[in-house]
Amino acid sequence: MEKQLFDDVLKARKSVKVYDKDVKISHEEMDEMLEKAALAPSSINMQPWRVVVVDSEAGKEKLRPIVQFNTRQNDTSAAMVVIFGDLKNYEYGEQIYQGNVDKGYMPKETKEDLLSKFIPFYKGLSLPQMTSIVNIDCSLFAMQFMLVAKAHGYDTNPIGGFDKENIAEVLGLDSNRYLPIMIVAVGKADQEAHHTYRLAPDAFRRYF
After folding, report:
1. Is the pLDDT of residue 137 over 70?
2. Is 203 helix (H, G, I), strand (E, B) or coil?
3. Helix (H) or strand (E) run with residue 158 in it
4. Residue 106 CB: number of other CB atoms within 10 A?
5. Which residues pair with 190 in a beta bridge?
6. What pLDDT score does 193 carry?
7. Whole-number pLDDT of residue 1
8. Above 70 in pLDDT, residue 2?
9. What percent of the chain has pLDDT over 90?
């Protein structure tokens, strides 16, 4: 992507609260956007993000009481993309690292050496330690998804205010394993988003 095009996407992304109800996103295009978002970095490439795309009327009806003060986004968006962090993401380690071998990205010996270190390390992490990791990794995924969606011509809104205690169960997931991170509403804006003032680098940066 050329710099100017990327700058256009970056500067055009704003948080949108109300969407055009008539705009839908096909599952094929949604999967394409998720695939691009999954190029985001993650700790030891464990890719802990797990996503539930709520785009049906029945699904949104179940989600509505969970999203608290964000019902406008739920009711009007093309989809509510619910991002969870998998606290047992290391169970995918073999599949991920074997994929590296199959693609020629690393030799089998390297894969076996790394997994022999990484898997026991991850299994030994405390809940707060793993929670911190998946929060960071899944937030990177969420930000990348929002930029990808904008490049596809859609608007988004990251939502952190929702019933985190019950959302996994409502969506049929194990609440002990899947940690709710964020919901991203996605669709075409029906109301123009507000411009917001941003601090200049000299207000938040120092060189050392």
Report:
1. yes
2. helix
3. strand 155-159
4. 14
5. none
6. 85
7. 54
8. no
9. 94
Residue with tokens 């994929």: 99
| Total Cβ atoms within 10 A of residue 154 | 24
Contacts of 82 (CB under 8 A, 6+ apart): 51, 52, 53, 54, 63, 167, 171, 180, 183
Tokens (6 digits) for 144:
């990348």
Q: Is the dihedral of CA 57, 58, 59, 65 positive or negative?
A: positive
The DSSP-derived string for 135-155 is: HHHHHHHHHHHHHHHHHTT-E
Task: Enter the DSSP assignment of 194.
Answer: P
Collapse the DSSP code of 185 into the 3-class scheme (helix H, G, I; strand E, B; otherwise coil) and give the result: strand
Average pLDDT over residues 149-164: 96
Average pLDDT of the residues in 173-183: 98
Say how far apart CA 202 and CA 155 lie, in whole Å: 29
Question: 182, 67 in Cβ contact below 8 A?
Answer: no
The two tokens of residue 202 are 């000299």
Task: Describe the chain by its helix, strand, coil percentages, rounded to 5.
Answer: 50, 15, 35
The two three-digit tokens of residue 50, written as one number: 């797990």
DSSP 52-118: EEE-SHHHHHHHGGGSTT-HHHHHHSSEEEEEEEETTGGGGHHHHHHHHHHTTSS-HHHHHHHHHHH
pLDDT of 37 reads: 98
Please enumerate, as own/partner, the contacts of 60-67 that have beta carbons within 8 Å and a separation of 24 or more.
62/170, 62/171, 63/167, 63/170, 63/171, 65/163, 66/162, 66/163, 66/166, 66/167, 66/170, 67/159, 67/161, 67/162, 67/163, 67/183
